[in-house]
Amino acid sequence: MGEVMLSVEGLGVTFRRGGDTVRAVRDVSFTVDRGESFGIVGESGSGKSTVLRAICGLSPTSAGVIAMGGQTLSAPRSAAFYRQVQMVFQDPYASLHPRHTVDRVLSEPLAIHGFDRREDRIEQALADVGLGEGFRFRYPHQLSGGQRQRVAIARALILEPRVLLLDEPTSALDASIQAEVLNLLDRLRAERGLTYLMVSHDLAVVSHMCERLIVMQHGRAVEQLSRDALAAHRAETDYTRSLLAASEGYSPAPV
Amino acid sequence: MTALLTVDDLRVTFPTRHGPSEVVRGVTFSLGRERLGIVGESGSGKSQTGRAILGLTPPPGRATAKVLDFDGIDLRAATPATWRSLRGARMSMVMQDPKFSLNPVMTVGRQLVEAVKFGDTGSRAEARDRALAMLEAVQIRDPERVFRAYPHELSGGMGQRAMIAMMLVTEPDLLIADEPTSALDVTVQVEVLRILDRLVADRGMGLIFISHDLRLVSSFCDRVLVMYAGRVVEELKASELRQAQHPYTRGLMNCLPQIEGGRRPLPTLERDAAWAK
After folding, report:
1. What is the ipTM of this complex?
2. In total, how many domains does chain A have?
3. Contact in structure between A30 and A38 (CB atoms under 8 Å)
């Protein structure tokens, strides 16, 4: 395979509150190659989103090393890091500021990172995600869920990053809109050679989008497998097999 | 099979600046002790249908129907006292989002005990035991911790399970589940559905399962209503969903990604203005 873009080695994240200690992520390791799309699948509370947040510097890491392009990341992350790595969150209803127009949402990262030609970049970013000029001065409440998620993707892409961290980008969307957003993400990756790290609970979505994936349970990575292995239902652990069985739909007898 | 619930020509209207807007337009069905699925995308009126049955159409919206009958009770003329005796005890609803339907300043345990004690005269300790048993029944690994926790301390899936526990603890006759498992993982989803399935089979509960997930509904429910723009565009047996005739139903089926993969780009849904007529 190609050059390693992102590597995570022995990552651990522990949260403490009161007497409760939650070890959200324990000893998770994987590498993502340049231009690859890598998936993390798991149930809620398995730590899959926390891995993404730890990479972004949004969660404290208690163990392990995260490196990008061979360089260990500093904490807090540098501005240069955020130009290369951007995140798209799960819920487009919560991740866009309700009182900022699309224009303001898109200009803020440009201002923070000192980009030039802001007008052109905003127009281009909107066109790239399939929204016309007419959407530029709207507020989030004037957009549908699919349109909001397109704005969130445009906001991530406007800094021309090389890596996108996608945290359940379509789970809040209708099936037909999900298909459109997945097609959009597919096209953008092909056009720009982006690297994706995608978290989802939906095996079918991850299998559609990602070449390789890890399955997480209780904070640990229990299995790594390729898309082909997943498609052929060649899972090695019971947990992955139960995920596969469950995603086929409802079955009355215990699996 | 005698009908538990009969709905004829249900309409829900909201006044807007441009005149009244009808979001549910003439929905008719009857429900026995079975699992009925209502499928549609956001804005299709499926949730408003569920809410109208419970008399929960948010004002200034208005729900009207030719017949709205629950086990011999005419719900159109129900007084607030009648509603109080029905809601929670005999018909209840699992909402879509636990973040908005649980009380943020009460622990999950207190809310559950409150639901148990509603219409039940047992002691506090009994109520607590029943609440804990119900939490365990919805596959919460650490019921004691969840019992003590506030809703914000739980993940979405946990919160939804707590919510389902709360609605099932009174053992209602009719459960309207509005996207009850959308926030859950596939393995938990199956567990929760088995709990619902058991209640339908053992206790003869009627279940209206509102969902956007065709694949899930077709494998879980007995019958499916497909809604588009406030109307039922197709009604079919769940097992015959693959032979669906309406282009909307077929489009919804096709745009789902498959684990087996292959189709790229995914087919998207081309909407036809005539469907909404």
Report:
1. 0.74
2. 1
3. yes
